[in-house]
Amino acid sequence: MRSGIEDYRSVYYRPDLPLLTGEVAVPDKPPRTSVIVTALGPDKHGLLAAVATTVAACDANVDDVSQTVTGGMFTMIMFVSFAEGELTLAGLQEALARTGVETGLQITVQHEDIFRFMHRV
Fold it and tell me: Could you report the per-residue pLDDT of 51-67, keeping only the tens digit for each?
C-alpha cells in the first residue's frame, strides 16, 4: 500500500509536463464594458427580477446589486458588465427601457467611466 503522498503524486503530478512557476497562461478574454443601471419607481413584487431577467436576456452579467424600498418607492443600483462586441450600451438601454415601461420604473443605464472621471481631481 502506498503512502498518501505517493497517491497524491501519482494522480496529480505529471513528470511529462513542466511545473508551473510564476505566471499561468490564461486564454484571452474579450474586453468587458461595465455600466451602472439605476431604477426608481413605485414598489411592487418582482421588480428586481424583471430588471435582472432583462440583463440576463441580453447576455450581460449582474456583478453587484443594491436595492431598497422606502416609503413605497423602490430604488436600485445594479452594476452590470458585458463582453464588448456581443452587446452595446444602446442595446442594453433599449431593452431596459422596455422593461421600465412594463414595470413602471424609471431605468437609466450609464457607462461606469462617467462616474470614474467625475470623481477625478
Answer: 999 999 999 999 999 99
3-state DSSP call for residue 71? coil
The whole-angstrom separation of Cα 74 and Cα 45 is 10
**CA dist., res. 112 & res. 108, Å (int):** 12
The overall average pLDDT reported for the chain is 84
Q: How far apart are CA 19 and CA 25, in angstroms?
A: 13
24-56 as b/e, with b when 16 or more CB fall inside 10 Å? eeeeeeeeebbbbbebebeeeeebeebbbebbe
Model confidence, pTM? 0.72
What is the spatial distance between Cα 113 and Cα 28, in angstroms, rounded to a whole number?
23
Q: For residues 81 and 61, is the Cβ–Cβ distance under 8 A?
A: yes
Instruction: For residue 92, give the amino acid letter.
Output: L
What are the chain's domains?
32-118 (3.30.70.260)
9: Cα within 13 Å, side-chain hemisphere: 8
